[in-house]
Amino acid sequence: MYAVIRTYLGTGARQLFVRLEERKTDVEAALRTVPGLVSYTLLNTGDGGTSVTVCTDKAGSDASLKVAREWIQKNASDIHADPPIVTEGPVVVQIN
Fold first, then answer.
1. Which top-rank group of organisms is this from (predicted)?
2. What does the DSSP 8-state code read for residue 1?
């Protein structure tokens, strides 16, 4: 398995997460199209937020980055949020 974490801070991050929460059904539908999706979590930290995507392989995690970027461009480009900090790597332990 492979995971990618996107952390949104700074300009527009709070507003972006308000939008994401308002449109969470659409966000979920978009992420469900990612091949090999194992899990997706979106959390609001108050000043921005973080998403954690786990896929069966790196290709799926790469696809999730593309899906997220396209969703934001289509649905939240008016917010002008700073790009996320991306952290990614192989999953060592996952407990379900």
1. Bacteria
2. -
What is the spatial distance between Cα 23 and Cα 31, in angstroms, rounded to a whole number? 13
The structural domain count of the chain equals 1
Q: What share of the chain is helix, strand, coil (3-state, %, to 5)?
A: 40, 30, 30
- The per-residue pLDDT for range 59-75, each reduced to its tens digit, is 999 999 999 999 999 99
pTM of the predicted structure, to 2 decimals: 0.91
The CB-side HSE value for 51 (13 A sphere, CA atoms) comes to 25
Give how far Cα 74 sits from Cα of 35, 70, 71, 78, Å: 21, 6, 5, 9
The answer, yes or no, to whether residue 96 has pLDDT greater than 90, is: no
For residue 33, is pLDDT > 90?
yes
Instruction: Say if 96 falls within a structural domain.
Output: no
> What is the distance between the alpha carbons of residues 57 and 3, in angstroms, rounded to a whole number?
8
